[in-house]
Amino acid sequence: TYLKTPAGIYTEVTLPVDDIKLNHENDTITSAKLVFHKMNDKTELAEKLLKDPSTLLMVQKDSLTTFFEKHKLADNMSSYLATLNTSYNSYTFNNISALINILYQNKKDGGSNYTTEHPDWNKVVLIPVQTSTTSSTSSSYTTSTTISAVNNEMSITSSRLVGGPDNQHEPVRISIIYNKNE
Prior knowledge:
- The protein is globular, with a radius of gyration of 18 Å.
- The chain has 5 helices and 10 strands; from the N terminus they run ββαβαβαββααββββ.
- With 182 residues, the chain is α+β, with helices and mostly antiparallel strands.
- The termini are far apart.
C-alpha cells in the first residue's frame, strides 16, 4: 500500500473492530497498538530523490475532509499521529483503544442497519502530514512543546507500507490488551 505527497495518495485501513470485540463484548480494551512497517525501496535512485513522510495521521475515513477544513489537532480519541521510527522502519500508533471503543459503540447503538447506512464505519486512512509546534517555558524553566497545527504534507514524499490484498510479507498486526470486567 502506498503513501505519496503532494499527489494525495494515502492508505485506507479496515480496523477489525468486530474481531477485536468478539468474546470480549463486556471487557475494556486497555491498549491497542498498531504498527505499520515500511518497505524499503531497493533502487538507489528512489532513495536519493524521495524522502519518507516523517509523520502520519490516522483519522476516520468519514472525518478526513472535516479534519483539515476545521483545522483539528490529533486528539488520541478519533485521530492519532505516528512518526517514522527509522530504527524499526515503521510507524507506530501506540494506543488506539479509544477509537476502537467508539467505533464499536457507534455500531452497537446504531441498530441493525448501521453497517449498511455507514459502510465505512470501521475504516481509517493514513495521511502524511506536517505538524507545527509551539514551545513554552514554565516558571521551573522546563520547556514543553505542543502541537499547534496539523496540515497535509506538501513536500514530495513517497513510501510503501506492508499491507494490501496481495501482501507477501507478515501481515499487519494489532496488539490488544483487555481488562476483564466481571
